[in-house]
Amino acid sequence: MGLNWHQVDAIKARAVKRGLARRQATKIDCLGIDEKQFRSGHDSVSNLYDLTGGRVLDIVEGRTENDCKQLIEQALTPEQRAQVTAVALDMWQAYANAVSQALPKADIVHDRFHISLHLNDAVDSVRRAENKALNKIGDNRLKGSRYCWLANEENIDKKRAEQFDVLKTSDLKVARAWAIKEMFRGFWDYRYAG
Q: How many alpha carbons lie under 13 Å from residue 129 in its C-beta half-sphere?
C-alpha cells in the first residue's frame, strides 16, 4: 500500500479513538489487572481487562498505585465502578491499594499463577534449607530432586518418578511442604454446590 510506519500509526490511532468513542458503558462484573513489560529494561504497562467480556478496556504506562487508579478511573464510568464485584490481580500491593480505593465494593481475587508461584517458592525454600542441613551430615537424598518437587507430578518422567515416590512419602520436611502444595491444587477445581 506504500504506507510508512508513521502513516500506519496515525491510522491505528484514529481507529482506536473512533472505537473508544463508540464504546458503550455496559455493566462489567469482573475485572482483571495485570502488568506487561515492554521495550528493553523495566518499562511496564498496566492493563485493565473485562474478564467476562474477554476484552482489554484500557492500558496505562507504569505500575504504581496512582497508575492503577488512573487506569480504573479513565476506563470505567462511576456507574460501572459501582457495579464491579471482583478484581483478579497479582499480589502487587500497589494494585491492591488502588483497587481498594477506586473499587471499594469489589473483592480482590489473587490469580492462580501467582498463588502457585508462591507455593512453589515455599516448597523450594524448604527443600534448599533441608538439603543444606542433610549435606552437613553426609545425606544427599535431595540432590538433583528440585524439578520433582516443583513440577506437576504427572509431568515427571518414569525414572525420576520412582525416586520421587520414595522421597515424597518420607518424613522429610520438604515432603510435608510438597503435600500441602499438592492439596491446594484441588482448590482450583472446587465448586460450591449450595
A: 11
